[in-house]
Amino acid sequence: MIALTRIILAALVLSAVHVALADENRRLPSIGLAIPVDPGSDAPYQQAFRDGLRDLGYVDGKNVTLIVRYSGGDPAKYREIIRELIALRVDVLWGEARELLTRARIDPFHSRRNGASRFAA
């Protein structure tokens, strides 16, 4: 009976350690922001966005990761940064919807067909 108790106790301790380690290695959810202008033009909007997230309890680097890319008004570069954010497998991709769908040729239903990725570029 004592041996069985020790085995159960050891299993509980090992599972608790495993859960603790898994929690430490957990990747923060990520938001990719594809901004079609330069950082200077976007600064007030970027601050408002971050303030809004903070009001909802999300802080960059603490419980969410913001990945911001700027194209400076260049449509070709905008397409590149969208593809980069898709390659980074961000959890949420934010940008101008028409640009995201037409310029990058994103198929939002791609993942339902083959399960590979949420987006196809």
Q: Give the count of helical stretches.
A: 5
Taking the sheet with the most strands, its summary is: 3 strands, parallel
Uncertain ranges: 3-22, 111-121
- What oligomeric state do the depicted chains represent? single chain
Q: Can you give the mean pLDDT?
A: 74
Work out the helicity level: 40-55%
- Overall domain count: 1
Gyration radius, to the nearest Å?
21 Å
Please name the fourth-level CATH homologous superfamily.
Answer: Response regulator
- CATH topological fold name: Rossmann fold
Give the SSE string.
HEHEHEHH
Q: End-to-end distance, in Å?
A: 60 Å
CATH architecture: 3-Layer(aba) Sandwich
> How much of the polypeptide forms β-strand, as a percent range?
5-15%
Given the C-alpha coordinates, what overall shape results?
globular
Using the coordinates above, name the CATH class.
Alpha Beta
User: In what order do the strands lie side by side in the largest sheet?
Assistant: 2-1-3
Helix/strand structural class: alpha/beta
How many beta-strand segments? 3
